[in-house]
Specification:
The complex is a heterodimer.
Chain A (H helix, E strand, L loop, with lengths): L4 E4 H11 L4 E4 L6 H10 L6 E4 L3 H13 L4 E5 L1 H6 L1 H9 L4 E7 L15 H5 L10 E3 L4 H18 L2 E7 H5 L1 E4 L27 E2 L6 H21 L3 E4 L6 E4 L2 H16 L4 E6 L1 E3 L3 H8 L4 E6 L5 H9 L5 E5 L8 H16 L2
Parallel strand pairs in A: 2-3, 2-4, 4-5, 5-7, 6-7, 11-12, 11-14, 14-15
Antiparallel strand pairs in A: 1-8, 6-13, 10-12
Helix pairs in contact in A: 1-2, 1-7, 3-5, 10-13, 11-12
Chain B lengths: L46 H15 L6 E5 L7 H4 L3 E4 L5 H11 L4 E7 H7 L1 H9 L5 E6 L2 E2 L5 E2 L18 H4 L5 H6 L4 E8 L3 H17 L6 E7 L3 H4 L3 H15 L3 E4 L14
Parallel strand pairs in B: 1-2, 1-3, 3-4, 4-8, 7-8
Antiparallel strand pairs in B: 5-6, 7-9
Chain lengths: ~350, ~280
């Protein structure tokens, strides 16, 4: 670890990209994540890395495709409207099995929406987003420290599965300043020689990158191969954090910024004698279904808290299988709940279901 | 190595490597080693197979197979990587120049080319194309202009001639409704990043020779790092033009060249060419 620095989330993420051995970054300005491009435009050339402001998010993601296909560590970042533009390219990246790191600093939508934080891109991130059958590991940072840490983790997971990895952040985590420490890290040596397009020597067959399998029999085989990878991700890459769950009668379920605010709501509730815990999914795909199901046998009810109209709550309900009530509380349009708002919703849940 | 099942290896047909039946004859022609030895899916009389071969001949002549990376488009030539025996990437529709940009920036000593049709380059991908050229990316763009969408069976393209009938302009392209065909080479030559821009055809032996020469130059110019080369090739598409291959060749000379005149549009300055080196 180096000494602690005070940094913006977006800048910590950008610095981590350099330390993680990112060979190339391609991006397009959009609030609230333009600091990533600005930081890297300034710093990457000092390390002889490639940084380019592309003509659009569509171009950015396809530049990532080219770089990743040639075997380089490549990355892009954007925010919601821009990230929507990248969905076709992400589908191609997954289809062609190209490792890369993607970042969406979520703002409120739909449409042009607003530049304030939101979590409305949950469905897009974890249920596909682009066309066709694919998944990608989605990591949701809840601090500036995690904005940095997940860059290293994300690149490694991308290489491990030859699949894109997404860091799904939000406008608040991206913009706020906190203490961050960068770990010392050496990028692992990954053998990409059997697929990367670096020029065909006489000693090997040609490599080509494609997601096209025109024969349905071949396409299905390819789909099954991808599905086997997604199954491995579900088995090995589920990540979450728990707070105060040991004695909990109730549970907040929230990720990213919402989880941060839930921590304070939890303190308020506990001071009032309500035993509430917090489960914070860190990987949104794969999702901690199993742990939530276990907790459903312990707690009397769950409150899912999101900055959207209710998206992750569907996964919580899938996990809980109706064993306990799962309620939802959200704010929209870039508006953010206070810890008191959340605590009040918990009291309402208790009153509705368990009042004596 | 993957092989697509729609491709027949010639060994399956028991075709032998070319041999001279009579010893006094000298073997004067063979398929370049940089081509994969399979039959192609292209229609009879289509320009793609010929242009694929010309590019691969240049790669063989320059002995740069190990340094060449191609980008295939979406369209009829989506399977180019089945035929060109080099490392290739298949790009999303229209995005070949963005893909090529990244590859070339990361590996500036490699030879990087895109191979794109008129729908891919001039409709859905014109932004990526224009910006790549404007940045002066040191890539070669091989632009196949046959004035129709081939793969999807003959719809109107940005380059469809005025009055030309296609499946989506059944009464002929109405320029008051759809505008006039885009002259890609002339348009892109305006950009300072364009180093060499030419328009050629492959509908006669002479035209083929000129096209090969243009491709040779365009590959060599990549050594200079002076900007983008764009070789537009007017391609025959007899199937979608509803013509015989010979009629299609004639159509190019009699009609296509009126809108798309052949020849060099932007040539490098002599002082820029001093540093060309012979590979190997």
């Amino acid at each position: 670890m180096t000494e602690a620095k005070l940094m913006k989330g977006n800048e910590a993420l950008a610095e981590a990209a350099i330390l993680a051995g990112c060979d190339a970054y391609f991006g397009y300005p959009i609030t609230p994540q333009s600091e990533v491009l600005e930081y890297l435009a300034r710093e990457m050339p000092k390390h002889n890395r490639i940084v380019m402001q592309a003509e659009s998010e569509v171009a950015s993601i396809n530049m990532v495709y080219g770089a990743a296909g040639a075997g380089f560590r490549a990355m892009t970042s954007s925010s919601s409207p821009g990230f929507s533009l990248m969905q076709e390219g992400i589908s191609y990246l997954a289809g062609a099995e190209l490792p890369c790191l993607l970042v969406n600093v979520n703002r409120a939508g739909p449409g042009l929406g607003t530049i304030q934080p939101g979590q409305g891109d949950y469905f897009q991130s974890v249920k596909g987003g682009g066309h066709g059958d694919y998944r990608m590991i989605v990591l949701a940072p809840a601090s500036v420290q995690e904005m940095a840490d997940f860059v290293f983790l994300g690149f490694d997971l991308a290489d491990k599965y030859r699949n894109p990895v997404l860091i799904l952040s939000d406008g608040a985590i991206g913009q706020m300043m906190e203490k961050v420490e960068f770990k010392s890290y050496t990028p692992p040596v990954v053998d990409k020689s059997f697929w990367a397009t670096t020029g065909k020597p006489k000693t090997r067959e040609r490599n080509y990158i494609t997601s096209l399998f025109i024969q349905p029999e071949r396409m299905e085989q390819h789909n099954l191969k991808l599905e086997a990878k997604f199954k491995l991700m579900r088995e090995h890459e589920v990540r979450w954090e728990e707070m105060n769950t040991t004695d909990a009668d109730y549970l907040f379920v929230a990720y990213g910024l919402s989880a941060r605010i839930c921590q304070k709501a939890m303190d308020i509730a506990r001071e009032k004698g309500i035993k509430v815990g917090l489960l914070r999914p860190i990987s949104l795909f794969p999702y901690p279904y199993q742990r939530l199901e276990e907790l459903a046998s312990q707690v009397k009810g769950m409150l899912t808290v999101e900055l959207n109209s209710g998206q992750m709550v569907e996964d919580v309900r899938l996990a809980v299988k109706g064993k306990v009530p799962v309620e939802f509380f959200g704010r929209l349009g870039g508006m953010i709940f206070t810890p008191e708002d959340i605590e009040l919703q918990l009291e309402n849940l208790i009153t509705n279901y368990h009042a004596n | 190595m993957q092989t697509e099942e729609h491709l027949l290896p010639t060994t399956a047909l028991e075709v032998q490597a070319p041999v001279c039946q009579e010893e006094e004859y000298e073997l004067v022609y063979h398929k370049p080693e940089t081509m994969v030895d399979v039959s192609m899916h292209y229609c009879p009389g289509c320009a793609h197979s010929l242009v694929h071969k010309l590019i691969m001949e240049v790669v063989e002549d320059m002995d740069i197979q190990e340094k060449t990376i191609g980008i295939a488009p979406v369209g009829c030539s989506v399977f180019a990587y089945d035929y060109m025996n080099i490392d290739m990437q298949e790009a999303a529709h229209g995005r070949a120049c963005a893909v090529a940009t990244a590859i070339k920036r990361l590996m500036p000593e490699k030879y990087v080319f895109t191979y794109q049709g008129d729908g891919d380059l001039a409709a859905i991908g014109i932004a990526e194309t224009l910006h790549a050229i404007n940045r002066g990316e040191n890539i070669l763009i091989v632009f196949m202009n046959n004035a129709v969408y081939g793969m999807t069976s003959g719809q109107m393209a940005p380059t469809t001639l005025a009055g030309m009938k296609t499946t989506t302009s059944p009464d002929g392209r109405d320029t008051s409704f759809y505008g006039s065909p885009i002259k890609v080479a002339e348009l892109m030559a305006q950009l300072p990043g364009a180093f060499y821009v030419t328009r050629q055809a492959v509908n006669s032996a002479n035209a083929v020779r000129r096209t090969k020469k243009a491709l040779q130059h365009a590959f060599q110019y990549q050594q200079l790092h002076k900007g983008t080369c764009l070789v537009e090739i007017i391609g025959n598409c007899p199937s979608n033009w509803k013509m015989t291959p010979l009629e299609a060749s004639k159509f190019i000379d009699e009609e296509m060249v009126k809108t798309f005149p052949l020849g060099d549009i932007k040539l490098p300055r002599a002082e820029d060419l001093k540093n060309i080196r012979e590979e190997n």
